Each structure stands twice: as structure tokens, then as C-alpha cells.
Amino acid sequence: MQQSAQPSVVAIEAERFRQFIMGVTDYAIYMLSPQGVVVTWNAGAQRFKGYHPDEIIGRHFSMFYTPEDQAAGRPARALELARTTGKFEDEGWRVRKDGSRFWASVVIDPIVDPHGELLGFAKITRDITERRVAAEQLERAREALFQSQKLEAIGKLTGGIAHDFNNLLSVIMNGLELLRLSKEPAIIAKSVDTMARAAQRGASLTQQLLAFARQQPLKQEAHDIGRVIRSFESVLHRALPDAMHLSLQMEADLPQAMIDPTQFEAALLNLVVNARDAMKEEGEVMIDLAAVTLADNEVDRLSAGRYVRVVVKDSGEGMTPETMTRAIEPFFTTKEVGKGTGLGLSQVYGLVQQCHGALTLDSRPGAGTSVSLYFPALPAQQESNLNQTGAGAEKVLLVDDQPEVLETAISLFSHLGYEVLSAHNGMQALETLRRTPDIAILFCDVVMPGMSGVELGKAVRSDFPRVKIVLASGYVTSSLRDEMPDIGSFELIAKPYRLSDLIRTLKAL
Question: Which SMART domains match (predicted)?
Fold first, then answer.
């Protein structure tokens, strides 16, 4: 009696489990045959896909995919990966019965018998459209807030930048007067050198301001953080009033780290501005840069290894323990209403997290505050590989509609050892490429009459896929990005560029 009752208990439990699965409404849970044909269909699948079981059982599950995914063979690839790897997980657009699309999270598990024979697949689908939309809205809001923070920093620097530019213009104007009046070679040479330095300084200031003001794709590259700070030092000085002092301490021969220099400069400026506000009328801000070797979890769950540490320390009022626990929260600020957004430190924290580093705070009331940023250092061998150059006798095609700019570019590339060809517009460039198939690099201005640099780049990428492409622009505005949405897919270099900028960009290729 006991043996004959056992199968009945198993059958009852199996039926209960089947009814439980069929009644789930938040998940589409259904079975597929080994060929991908729908075998079962639960309430959740019917709720957000729109099909009654009678309409869908017996049909192939690929009908839920978009036409472009079907053409790319994604349904068959999903089943093959599930069968060969034991599970398939994916996110993507799926199609409801009414033709509308939803963003789905999909899991496919193969079902096999005790002998390993494939019986079919269990498929679980969730509609996560709202989560995806919320994530996109959050990212857009984060980017808008980051832009707002950068513009706030520019507003604080405006007076100092204007002062710098007036000084630079004075140097250039006085130098031109000396050139007109003097015939002595030594005075002429000295005036030219002085004006060249002033012009370069003005170009650097312009690029730094544009880097903050504009929206641009952020990308991490290997950089010497010390050099980045040195090139940005004057802007940091301008952020402090005359009664405050900025000092830099940097170790020699620091390893490189993977950072986005523009975002790093914005973070550093935020820390210096915070330090300034904490010191009220006078004090000292110290930036200390060093290489450190950490043990596992010695700093905020960082793994053992070598790091580049950037410390920004002020002699201000310091923070209470309660303030420190909330310091990196977005919108949290101790400043008066209208004096701060509360986004500065959270933006810095986001940067170090993006770079797989860490941020630590050390502060006591009346003893100032130290903010330490840790960036993973590149291994010596990887750094050596990045430093290797060698243009050899590669051919480069330079394209610019401004003759003076084109002549300067020709001189710079020739100095680097390239064999240089030039063109004044896009059509001329394409003709040159057809005649000279061994051109290795196209270096082109973005804004040109007729065919733009982006249009030329797309044509070259299509017809001459081996050619590496670099686009040069003085200012990639948001409106220009709207007109040329593909610009972000090319390597960009900012005008005016120097020899060192060219070398770094060509290395990146």
C-alpha cells in the first residue's frame, strides 16, 4: 500500500509546482523544445507579451525578437550558447503581440535527461523596461549635474582667467611693437620667443576652459598625473585669492595611471575650490603626489599593488565625524544656500570609482582636511610599451582648408619622420588616397567647406578600412555633435595642438 501511494504524492507535488509556475505573473516562464518551439506558456508570459497560450504554443520563440535580431541569427545563437555552456543570459529588445517593444532580461537553461540527452530549454523573461528607462534618466541627470558643476567652476575662475589673458595680450602687443621698432637680431629673437610662449599659454588656457564647458566623450588613457597637474597649475592658482597659497609636492619618476585628464582636472579643481571655501580668508592648500604600495584592503577594499596617490590638504576648519560620513553624498553641502551644489566631492568620488581607485577623507575640527585619491599604477612593462614610438616612413595625408594651418601640420609631421601628403578639401583627399593606397594615417580638420572631416572620415573608413583616422577641431560643440553624431567614433585632437599632443594622439592609434 505504501509503495502504490508514493507515485500519487509525487504526482500531486508535480501538479502543485506546475500550477505555481503557470500562475506567476511577474516573470514569463515557459518551456521550449530542443528546436526552440514554445511548449508551455504561463500567466506572466501572457501578461506582458500579449499572447494567449492557444496563440503561441507550437510556434518558434524567435518571433519575440526584433526583425534585426532575427536577421542577425540571435535566437539560434542563444539556444546554442545555452546548450554548450549550460546557461544563456542576455538583455535586449523584444516584441509584444501588438508590435510594441520592451527591454527584456532573459535566462535560458538547457534541460537534459539523466543520460545527458537534451530535452528542451527552460526560458525565463522579465520586462525591465522601467528599470532601463530609469537608469538612462539617471545617467542623463548625472551628466547634466556634472556639466552644471563644471560651469560653476568656470564662473568662479572668470576673473582670474580674464586677468591672465590681459597679461598675455599685453606681452604679444608689446612684442609686436618691439618688432616694428627694433632691428637688432637679439631683441627680435627674444620678442618672438616671448610672444610664442604667451600664445601657447593662451591656447592652453582656452583648451582647459573648453574642456570644462563642453560635453565630450570621456575616455581613460595612460597619463603622467604629475604632468597633468603641472599643465593645469595656473588654473588652480587662479582659483585661490591672493591671501591663500598653493604648494605642489611631487615625487620624481612617478608611474603612469589610466585617467581621463579632463575629468581629473575638474575633480582637482573641485577639491581646491572646496579647500578655499573651508579656509575663509587665508591659508594654504597643498597637493602631494606620490607612488605608494598597498596591501590587500589597506585602503577601502583596494587590492594589493602599486598606486598613484594624490592628496589635497587644506588648513581650514575641518569636518566633524558626522559631516565626514555624508561628505560624498550628492547634494550634501555645509555651504550657505546658493554658495554650492553639493556635487563637487561626489563627482570626485565618481571619478576614482570609474578608474578602479579609491577616495579617503581625513579631517578634524580645527585641523583642516585631507582628501586622498588613489589610482592604480600601470605595470612597468605596460608603461614601457606605451612609451615606444616609431613613425618610421609611414605616409600621412593631411587635410585642411586653411593654408597656414596645413603648412604648420606638414612641418610637424615631417619632423616626426612621416612621409607627408596634403589636400585642401575632402574630394582632393579621396583622389589622393585612390592614387596612393599605402597611406597609413588621415589627419583632417573637422569643419571644412563642402565635405566635412566627419564625412571624409566615414568615406575613408568605408573605402580604405586600413587607414587610421584622426580629426582635429578647435571646439566640438553640442550643436556640432548633433549635426555630426558620428564624430565620437573617431580619434580627436584639439586645436591648437603641439608636437607632444601629436605624439600622444598618434600613440593612441
Answer: HATPase_c, HisKA, PAS, REC
